[in-house]
Design brief:
By secondary structure, the protein is an alpha/beta fold. The chain has 13 helices and 15 strands. An 8-stranded mixed sheet has the order 4-11-10-9-8-5-7-6, with helices on both faces. Strands 1-2-3-14 form a 4-stranded mixed sheet. Strands 12-13-15 form a 3-stranded antiparallel sheet. Helix 6 packs parallel to helix 7 and helix 11 packs parallel to helix 13. It is globular. Bound molecules: pyridoxal-5'-phosphate (PLP).
């Protein structure tokens, strides 16, 4: 595989951007080597600067559920941008996207558009604090909620810990209000509610944690969180930025039939353009400015071009059997990989839900917590990733990241991918 052009571009990029990138995981540090610079994408395929072609399972880390440069999305963007790209005043397109979402999602009544997942979550936390008039928040080790200060925390050594920043530049005062516990642990959550009685504004969770492997939770656990939040007048926030519109149009709330108090979305909602959103009941949302005292604003919020892309993409997602077909494709890919292996790889697991999949090298039947993810096993992923690139298959460059099947993946893509996987897996575990 030729990589000269990508390597030259990366050399230049290193003089412009820290680590040569505008978001850290893109730098390929966890798989080694230099990142590929992507020149174009169409459907399920991408091409790099050296002209190498790949079947893509990164999908811009999730947003591209229809694939790259989908004709309907591209047309919507073109038609809209012809009439101006931003006004800082309301447009009908915001109503249209909101209506599309609210009509098909009974778990929220009102929403606010923002420009990223980070912003959606940051705003949701402020809303929860403003609504409950409490300061503390509880999050789970292994869930990612974007890079706002109060969520850049990691677990310490106890059952319930707080105040350990996971990034320089985050003041202790900010994270002192963030409690961190392990996933799938009822006792830790009970302990936190006992230690901080009437102080916890919200519990925030990725109901389908997909940023640190795919840590599928038990429905009973999510229901437990719902119940303990209700008992304590604490708001339950589902951060569905990655799984929203992915496991179904009404996300994890609809999948598990659990009503959270606030939901955040991002990624898919913008059709590949920057959009985030948070929503809740009309009563909770009435706390937001200018109706209520919780301030939140954005110069480019509800941007018309991004709204148009989102409308075009979500309209496709609403077509009959859209999600069933995606799930079938994903299962076909996984089954074909296992069926094609020449020898059994005993520690190979491919966990999946809907069209999200995660390749793990573990003896465990289920991996539900960050602690259960074996850092040492990432050595297999590193080889797998490199060998897949050589065979024309592009996965996100980290073993902690999940893959996504999109509408544009064809049966031929999936069969070719399974063949590449089989060969690459056999090399990676040798
Ligand atoms: C991606 C993601 C975010 C952050 O979204 P950005 O658009 O990258 O700021 C927050 N929460 C979850 C669950 C995510 O997957």
């Amino acid at each position: 595989m030729k990589r000269e052009k990508s390597e030259a571009l990366f050399e230049k990029a290193k003089s412009y951007f820290p680590g040569g990138v505008n978001s850290p995981v893109r730098a390929f540090r966890s798989v080694g080597g230099t990142p590929l610079f992507i020149q174009k994408g169409k459907g399920s395929h991408i091409w790099d600067a050296d002209g190498n072609e790949f079947i893509d399972y990164c999908g811009s880390w999730g947003p591209l559920i229809l694939g790259h440069a989908n004709d309907k999305v591209v047309d919507a963007i073109k038609q809209t941008v012809e009439n101006g790209s931003s006004f800082g005043a309301p447009t009908a397109l915001e109503n249209e996207l909101a209506e599309l979402i609210l009509k098909n999602n009974k778990y929220i009544q009102k929403l606010r558009f923002v420009s990223s997942g980070t912003e959606a979550v940051m705003s949701a936390i402020r809303l929860a604090r403003g609504y409950t008039k409490r300061n503390k928040i509880l999050k789970f080790e292994g869930c990612y909620h974007g890079h706002s200060d109060s969520l850049l925390v990691k677990a310490g050594s106890g059952l319930v810990t707080f105040g350990n920043t996971s990034s320089a530049g985050v003041p202790e005062g900010v994270v002192n209000d963030t409690i961190v516990v392990s996933l799938n642990n009822e006792q830790a959550v009970r302990q936190a509610f006992a230690d901080f009685k009437n102080q916890i504004a919200c519990v925030i969770i990725e109901p389908i944690p997909a940023n640190n492997g795919l840590l599928l939770q038990r429905k009973e656990y999510l229901q437990f969180l719902r119940d303990i939040c209700t008992e304590n007048k604490t708001l339950l926030i589902f951060d569905e930025v990655i799984n929203g519109f992915r496991v179904g149009f009404d996300g994890a709330a609809g999948y598990y039939k659990i009503q959270p108090d606030i939901i955040t979305y991002g990624k898919i909602i913008g059709g590949g353009l920057p959009v985030g959103m948070y929503g809740a009941s009309a009563e909770i949302m009435s706390c937001i400015s200018p109706e209520g005292p919780v301030y939140q604003a954005g110069t480019l919020s509800g941007n018309p071009v991004a709204m148009a892309a989102g409308i075009a993409q979500l309209t496709e997602c609403l077509k009959p059997n859209f999600y069933q077909d995606l799930e079938k494709k994903t299962q076909f890919l996984i089954n074909t990989i296992f069926d094609s292996l020449k020898f059994q790889i005993s520690n190979l697991k491919i966990f999946s839900i809907g069209s999200i999949f995660w390749i793990a090298f573990t003896d465990k039947e289920a991996v539900r917590t960050a602690e259960e993810v074996d850092a040492d096993s990432m050595k297999y992923f590193r080889i797998l990733h490199k060998e897949l690139l050589e065979r024309g298959v592009y996965l996100g460059p980290s073993g902690y990241e999940v893959g996504f099947v999109c509408e544009a993946h064809t049966e031929d893509d999936l069969i070719r991918t399974a063949k590449a996987f089989t060969e690459a897996l056999e090399i990676s575990v040798k």
